[in-house]
Amino acid sequence: MPARLRFLLLYFLSWTLFFEAARLLFLLLQGKALPAGTFAGTLWYGARMDLSMAAYLSLPIAVFLLLSFLVPILRRPLLYQAYTILLLVPVLLLIVCDVEVYKQWGFRLDATPLKYLSSPAEAWASIAHLPVVRYGLFFVLCCLAAGYGAARLLRRMAAPLQLPERWYLGLPLLLLATGALIIPLRGGLQQTPLNQSSVYFSPNNFANQAALNVPWNFLFGVISEKAETNPYPYFPAAEARNLANRFFAGEPFDVQPPPVPGDSLNVLLVIWESGTAKAIDTTIEGVEITPGFNRLKAEGWYFANAWASGDRTDKGLPAVLSGYPALPQSSIIRLPNKAARLPTLGKGFRQKGYEPAFYYGGETEFANIKSYLLGSGYTTLIDKSDFAAKDQNSKWGAHDGVVADRILHDLSAARKPFFTTWLTLSSHEPFETPTAPVLAGSDDTHLFLNSIHYTDSVLYHFVRACEQTNWWHNTILVVVADHGHPLPATGSRRDNFRIPILFLGGALPQKGIEQRVVSQLDIASTVASLAGLKLEFPFSHNLASRLPHSAFFCFNNGFGIVQDTSYVLFDNVGRTVLEQSPGATPQLLRTGQALQQYTYQDFLDK
Question: In which residues is substrate bound (predicted)?
Fold first, then answer.
């Protein structure tokens, strides 16, 4: 093997083993027992993030080695020793500090401590009670030991670089190896780049936390948490809070439907990918786009004027499951330490003895969904990896029909009440369907509506199959979109956020079609009330209440607020109104600005 290629591979492997050793140290110093299989899982699954971090650190070495064909000084060990020791100091500092951070805060070290460096006196006061001296000595010893070991190892590894090498053999192989580093760097060949979800594997939160690579987690936090202060200071904090509280206050009906006996209620939550309300009751070229849903909504409790909280799946999931508003430029589930503080339906059902399950035909690692779900009380996650290769008939994974059959099969064996969530897939770009299209045309609008029609058919037959089971009489099934969609275009951005909300089931206490404005956020409180869960969702209304008939949503650095007869959409960057109805008042815009400020401050405070 050419000397430079061997050097790069050994360097990459050394960092990987170093990070595995750091994980063992973390597990040892935390003193928490794990079953043998789970313990091994932290090393196995965590290795993926270790490989990624090792690839980042090895990239400059690869560049040095490539240049060494022309620059003789780059063949000497001193440069590699200096570079590595300069890296070891901050890396070891993160590793050592992380041990106590987890003991104190319950999560791995990220960018959170950086927020306190602007107030050094307060920062010191907050850690003065900790064994700082002991950890400081431990850090120095680790630096000395690791630095000495690295210097010796690199001296031996670099010795062959001094010898003549056939460049026409070594250079192409080294270029190939350098390019190949992108594979571990991004976590593999899958569609979704590496994130914390990629190494989460267990319902045990400590095991998932142990699987994280601390330097990787810290850098991710630094990059992700760009906003240290609220960028939407429209009002004094107290005024924004008062306006927001008035918006989220709800007054109960004089007579509310009684909750279903919570200990035996089954809940099926279907989250329809891109399930825009623009497709409901719509006929294109003589084809009814959602014939199944149109029939189902006449049989349940349907909200015809419902609005999504955001515009992406990673915003829609916490909106539905946690009643948490979407953010204008990010998603709370991309930051697991913040997401872990959210109330969730999964946690509520778990406390009542349920074993919440989540089904998705794609990769749950997408947008850090898996870490949010595992932290939300879900004990079973079924995703792309759980389906046979022959059933992964979509670019993203398994189509909705395959997943629906799997859910029905699994629920047929259920021996106790269940809480099951299904995130559909097939109406996601590129809008593939395993069946023949019902609309002619290859443009995006036709492809999208064909995919909606396919999922509608799957959903309709799924509900009809559920109705034939022995558990349907004690079940509530909720259909809600994760977000709307720009297609088909209407000329109004507001319409992109309209979604359907439908309650079905033998245990449903009321039926009818409602025209009042409601929000996707209201699912959480409503399901919790029906199931008798002791949960509070501050941003969510119970749909069986006298609501303020308003909804608030966010998009990329903008927001919209909708009432029964008026609406306004606002651009936070340009501070301009994008759209508004003739009846929109200045007070409506003020309320929207207050909600933007208040909800984002809540995110920052978590």
Answer: 428
Q: Could you tell me which of 208, 214, 217, 210 has the C-alpha nearest to residue 381? A: 208
User: Do 340 and 475 belong to one domain?
Assistant: yes
In angstroms, the Cα distances linking 390 to 188, 384, 387, 393, 434 are 22, 12, 8, 7, 12
Residue whose structure tokens are 């369907």: 433
Q: Do the annotations mark residue 273 as ligand-binding?
A: yes
Residue 488: inside a domain, yes or no?
Answer: yes
Q: What is the DSSP letter of 571?
A: E
pTM of the prediction? 0.84
| E strand intervals along 75-167 | none
Could you read off the pLDDT of 476-492 as tens digits, one per residue? 999 999 999 999 999 99
Q: What is the CATH number of the domain that holds 450?
A: 3.40.720.10
Please indicate, yes or no, whether residues 282 and 371 belong to a single structural domain of this protein. yes
Report whether 299 belongs to an annotated binding site.
Answer: no
Q: Is residue 554 part of a domain?
A: no
Residues 400 and 470 in one domain: yes
**402 and 333 belong to one structural domain:** yes
Beta bridge partners, 414, equal none
Distance CA 288, CA 411 (A): 31
Domain count, the chain: 2
C-beta of residue 46 within 8 angstroms of C-beta of residue 199: yes
Question: Residues 348-378: pLDDT tens digits?
Answer: 999 999 999 999 999 998 888 999 999 999 9
- Assess whether 460 and 517 both reside in one domain: yes
Q: Is 409 marked as binding a ligand?
A: no
C-alpha 304/C-alpha 274 separation (Å) is 16
- Based on the fold, state whether residues 365 and 453 are members of the same structural domain: yes
Was 541 annotated as part of a binding site?
A: no
Q: Give 365's DSSP letter.
A: T
To the question of whether residue 482 is assigned a binding role by annotation, the answer is yes
* Domain, as residue range, for 280: 262-548
* Mean pLDDT score, 580-592: 95
pLDDT digits (tens, 9 = 90+) for 62-86: 999 999 999 989 999 999 999 999 9
What are the residue numbers of the active site?
Answer: 313
In three-state form (DSSP H/G/I as H, E/B as E, the rest C), the secondary structure along 471-530 is CHHHEEEEEEECCCCCCCCCCCHHHHHEEEEEEECCCCCCCEEECCCEECCHHHHHHHHH
Instruction: Say if residue 184 is in the same domain as residue 101.
Output: yes
The beta-strand segments (E) located in 310-415 are 357-360, 380-382
- pLDDT band at residue 226 under the 50/70/90 scheme: low
Q: Is 270 helix (H, G, I), strand (E, B) or coil?
A: strand
Is residue 284 within a helix (H) or strand (E), and if so which, with residue range? strand 283-284
Across the chain, what does the average pLDDT equal?
91
Residues with Cβ within 8 Å of residue 9, at least 6 apart in sequence: 177
- Distance, CA of 48 to CA of 50 (rounded, Å): 5
pLDDT range class, residue 259, cuts 50, 70, 90: low
